[in-house]
Amino acid sequence: MPSAVTGVIHDLERILLTPEQIHARVREMAARLNAELAGKVATVVALMDGGLFFVADLLRGLEMPVRLFTLSASSYHGGTATSGEVKVNWPANLDLRGQDVLLLDDILDTGLTLSVIRDRILAQEPASLRTCVLLSKRRQRLRDVPLDDAGFEIDDEFVVGYGMDYQGRFRNLPCIGILNPNKPS
Q: Which of 109, 148, 149, 155 is catalytic?
């Protein structure tokens, strides 16, 4: 591991998922999607910035043609708890009618962000909609969101790494971990 990343790992209380665990599970998810979407074109709607690494790795494992649209959506706005308000940057030309849509996000937490995006996609009458996340927190949701696949179920803890951040930091970690409460500034 590069020395700069190794130094950042010291900001973690513990590593929750290693790079090897993450990559193995993402490969399994891609294999399942390859079977489910065989012969189709997948229209991927990916939530960024936290989903960047997950989306990139998953898409590299897909064997069908892919149309990719990225959205900026968040209900955290820099903190560790949801603000309750979902902000979405929805492209004006995004027409999903009749498409086989694959909605990807890094984490299902309160359900607010994913439910807002799913409702907007469903309003466009896609042929199908699959929702996949890398992480699903074990917690009561503010809104229920049906999932077709979750890479891992985790406890209700704030996580960083593999694209997920705390105040813009830690996205570049190859693992997923829990911040040391005494370290981050």
A: 109
